[in-house]
Structures are given as C-alpha cells and as structure tokens.
C-alpha cells in the first residue's frame, strides 16, 4: 500500500478513509483533522488561552502535541484522581511529557485539595467509580481553568469516545444529553468554553500518531472503568465498524449535521435555571452543587462505633 | 417462578417486564399489549376493514390470531414471492392456518400477477434481494388492500424488528426514514393506513404466544435474508439486551415518545410532492414508480444471444 498523498510506502491504513499514509503525511493528516474540527466548530478564538486536560494517555498527550503543532500555546492540566498505581503512572507520564517539551503543567490533586479521591468518593455516594470520576473531573477542570485565567478547556475525547456516548444517549433518548453532546460547549456564566478537538480522529489514529511522533504515553486503561457501559458501547460500535467501515464517523457526524440541533432546546432548558453553589460558587440547578454534595459525603468523619458496626 | 397475575406456576418469564406468566395470563398479556398499541396510536377506527399481511411465520400468524381474539374481523393477505422452497412452505403454512380457522385469505402471486419474482427482480436491479422484496411487498400490500376495499393494512413487525430498523436509521441519521418510522403510517391519497400492532411484543414473546395457542407456523427464516444488515443490527441489540434487559423497549418507545416528532417534518416533505404513477396509479415522486421500474427491468425480454454472452 502506498501513501495516498506522496506515493511513498504507507505505514498506516485508515479504513474509514480507504487510504494509506506514510508517517509524515499521516501526522499532517492528523493535524488537518484537528484544524478542521477547530475551524468547523469555532472552538478557539484568536487570543484565547487554552488549557488541555491530560491524563498521560494517548488521546490527551496527542491532543496537547497537536494543539502545540498547530500553534496554540496550550498549557496542560493534570488532575490526580487517587486511583492507586494507575494514577501514579498516569501522573508520571503527563509530567515526563510536559518536562520533555518544556510546556507548563498545572497539577491538582483531588485528595490534597478536596479531601477525597475517586474510590472513596464512589463508595460514599454508592455509585460506580466512573460516575464519581466524571463528576469530579468536570468540576475540577472548570475550576482550575477559571482560577488560572484560561478561556477554553480542551479534552481528548476522540471519535470513538463520542460515538459511544452518542449511542448510549440515543439508546435511552436522553434528549437533554443529546442537546448538550457537541464538540463545543460554549462559555456561560461560571463556565469556561469546553472543546473536543479530536472528534475527527479515532482511537487507532491517536495511538498511531503517538507512536509515529515518539510520544511515550501510558498504555494501561483505568482499572476502575473495566466492564462499564461505555466500553460495552465501544465494543458494539467496533463490531459494526468491522462490518461497515465508516459507520462510526457517519453516526457521529450525521448527528452533528442533522440530529443535534433538534435537541438543542432541551439542553438550553437545563442550563436556564442555574445559580451559584453556596459552597463553591459553581453554577448549579440544585441547592448545593453535586460536586460539593459528593465532597461532603466523601469527607464526612464517620464515628468509630458506626464504622465498626457497618 | 410464579405467574405475576395469578400465582400459578409460570411457563414463561419476560425479563424486560421482570415477570413470569402462566399460559393463560401470558396470552392475555399479549392481547393487552396489542390492544394498548392499537389504542395508544389510534391504529384502527370503529368500522374500518383490516387486512393483515401474513407470511406463515410466527409474527404474522400471531398477529392475525391476536387481532381476531380482540374482535377485529381481519382477513389475511398472502403474497407469493417466488423464493423457492421457502415460499412454498410459507404459503402452505398461511393457507393451513386460514383454513383451520375459516378466515378469508387473499392471495397474490408476484410472478403470476406481475411477471417476476424476488430473485429475478433483485438480479434485474442488481440490488440485494431484501431491497427488491421490501419494495415489492410495500407495493403489492397497498395495491391489494385498496383493490379489495380495506382501510387498514396491518403487518407483523414486532419490537425487535422495529428496534433494529431504528438502530439502522439512527446510525446513518436518515432523517426522512426517522420521520416515517412510526407504528402508524396514516392513510393518504393512494395509500391505505399501515399499522404495526405488535410493536409492544418481542420476537420471543410472539414465538411463545404461537406455541401456547397451538399456532403451527413456519420456523424457517427467509434464506435470502441471511447475513443482511438488519439481522446484524438485531444481533447487536440482543447483545445489549442481554447486558441490560429492557434496552430495546426503552430505545423504541423512547424514540416514539421523545424523538419521532422531531423528524416528522422531514417525512412530510418527502410525501408532499407525489403524483400517480402513469403505469400503475400508485403515488410516486418520480416519473414512474420504483415498483414499475423494477417490474420493467425484471420482465424485459432478453435476446438469447445477449443472455448467452453474459
């Protein structure tokens, strides 16, 4: 197979595009896909300060590398979630990458700053860890971006992630979530703008990008996510993609072109009735925001007697 | 396990309802689901004449039996599609059932009436057989119902069928198809009303209904459908259902409650610009309707020389 662009021997084939690429043309292809996502969805305006959330994995490090390659002087944000060895290694990976390139990395440790971590938080609210983790990350990302004067927060959600989330939302016709599922969640009082510049690149493309550009990422996946619904949806979409290459992209992009706007009003409704949380100031529709409720339950001092009898 | 209603020993459990039923209560449950579908979606008005399309399989014979049990004096329609032994056996099954109950069965043979069958039609238009078959059935069902003075045509599409079609439509965001996907397609000039009274019952429930009420149906599936996309979507949904019972029903009913109306305008647009086909009189947006085009290509006399050189 030859590179679609320069006819040199290809090192990767992208079935969805029915095309092979050499290493140089492939990294250019990745940059172009990110450029196109940013332009199409007006993710970043000139002069805006961008913070990228990094976990040490292929998607977030790849994203940081790509944004820098496109000329955005993005800084990184690493949040320590306290998930045992996995968090230790993912922090090491993020720090090593930042240090190697000399790019600033902000760090927030969930336990040191808020007094709990993902495992203890999940136990406290009796929810699956991914639920406590997502809730915490959304809050801390927004908090850290605002506190440090960033306008935009970028995350490494790729095409596979977004298609799997979309499948879950569609299977339950979660109209509010469908209205909010978009590569850009615009800034609003108390919220920085959230963007997903990797929506045009699949998981396999990100892994190849990292390998070809020498990015040393943590390969291990979060051990707490194993067997969750989201991964189940990813597997199902991979089965469909195997039979009909391009289905995932058609599903996600078709939604963005022809589906999303039909649900947008449902999301606006949800955002209409927000006020600042009395504990932390973050916008919330409830008395106290869900992060502060999680924190309160996870950091409550349990009397010794009660603990023993549990 | 005991029957949810009468506490007698259960003969079937319906995981989606998290309930077991004895034979009598299960057949009552099936009737109630059909009654509810008919009422909720206003499928049949008092005094309307209903024709049910029967293939000899569990869904269509079950539907005919259920409609009669609910007091609708429904007649049957069998269309001979010319799919070898499968069609022979499915015709025998439909005829035996109609004869046993003394219910009128109309018959239309595709080859005898229109000069081609599904295999030759599919070859002529170089499409998969399911495409030529669906096109032909839609046309012949409507034609037969109108010619014989019926107001409503009922088909045996069940919850599994409809969920699989919905998945295919959603994966490609076929907005026109999504707008048309509904248990009722209302009457319009040239069209009788089409209804799907089995949308609240799954494949497994229909099979159990037939077994428990002594309906002798043809178990064999159409050999030409093997490996088609629709069956692939069914398998995927079965995998999801296995992990989370109730997903299929939530997917379909959620769409009908919260999704469908957002796409309805796209379907109306497609139906707005119809005129009678000059060949057969059926409404069509094209010069000649797609059934007549299929028929013309399938019945074209091919010169012997051309056939030999093919």
How does this model look, in words?
The structure is a homodimer of 310-residue chains. Helices cover 53% and strands 11% of the residues of chain A. Chain A has 310 residues and is an alpha/beta fold. In chain A, α1 packs across α9 (203-213), α2 (58-69) packs across α9 and α7 packs across α11 (247-259).
Structural topology:
2 copies of one chain form a homodimer.
Chain A: E1 12-14, E2 19-21, H1 23-40, E3 50-53, H2 58-69, E4 75-80, H3 84-101, E5 105-109, H4 110-114, H5 118-125, H6 129-147, E6 152-154, H7 159-171, H8 175-180, E7 184-185, E8 193-195, H9 203-213, H10 229-243, H11 247-259, H12 264-272, E9 275-276, E10 283-284, H13 290-299, H14 304-309
Parallel strand pairs in A: 3-4, 3-6, 4-5, 6-8
Antiparallel strand pairs in A: 1-2, 7-8, 9-10
Helix pairs in contact in A: 1-9, 2-9, 5-6, 5-13, 7-10, 7-11
Name the largest protein-protein interface in this structure: A-B, 22 and 22 residues
Q: Element order, helices and strands of chain A?
A: EEHEHEHEHHHEHHEEHHHHEEHH
Assembly type:
homodimer
Helix content of chain A: 40-55%
Radius of gyration of chain A: 20 Å
Give the number of helices of chain A: 14
Sheet bearing the most strands of chain A, described?
6 strands, mixed
What fraction of residues of chain A sit in β-strands?
Answer: 5-15%
- Structural class assignment of chain A: alpha/beta
Low-confidence stretches of chain A: 305-310
Shape verdict of chain A? globular
Mean pLDDT of chain A comes to 93
N-C termini distance of chain A: 63 Å
| Total beta strand runs of chain A | 10
Spatial order of the strands forming the largest sheet of chain A: 5-4-3-6-8-7
């Amino acid at each position: 197979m030859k590179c679609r662009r320069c006819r040199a021997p290809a090192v990767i084939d992208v079935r969805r595009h029915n095309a092979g690429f050499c290493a140089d043309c492939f990294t250019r292809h990745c940059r172009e896909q990110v450029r196109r996502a940013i332009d199409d969805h007006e993710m970043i305006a000139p002069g805006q300060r961008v913070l990228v959330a990094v976990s040490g994995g292929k998607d977030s490090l790849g994203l940081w590398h790509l944004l820098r390659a496109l000329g955005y002087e993005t800084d990184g944000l690493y949040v320590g979630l306290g998930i045992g060895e996995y968090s230790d290694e993912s922090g090491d990976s993020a720090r090593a990458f930042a240090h190697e390139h000399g790019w600033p990395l902000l760090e927030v440790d969930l336990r040191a700053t808020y007094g709990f971590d993902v495992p203890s938080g999940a136990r406290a609210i009796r929810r699956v860890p991914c639920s406590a983790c997502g809730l915490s990350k959304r809050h801390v990302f927004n908090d850290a971006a605002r506190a440090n004067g960033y306008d935009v927060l970028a995350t490494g959600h790729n095409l596979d992630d977004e298609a799997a989330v979309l499948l879950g939302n569609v299977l339950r016709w979660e109209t509010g979530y469908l209205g909010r599922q978009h590569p850009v969640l615009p800034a609003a009082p108390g919220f920085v703008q959230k963007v997903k510049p990797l929506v045009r690149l699949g998981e396999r493309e990100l892994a190849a990008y990292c390998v070809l550009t020498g990015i040393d990422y943590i390969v291990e996946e979060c051990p707490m996510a194993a067997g969750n619904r989201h991964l189940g949806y990813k597997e199902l979409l991979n089965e469909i993609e195997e039979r009909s290459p391009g289905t995932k992209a058609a599903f996600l992009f078709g939604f963005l072109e022809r589906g999303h706007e039909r649900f947008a009003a449902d999301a606006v409704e949800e955002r209409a009735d927000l006020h600042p949380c009395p504990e932390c100031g973050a916008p919330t529709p409830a008395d106290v925001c869900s992060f502060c409720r999680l924190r309160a339950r996870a950091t409550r001092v349990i009397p010794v007697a009660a603990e023993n009898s549990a």
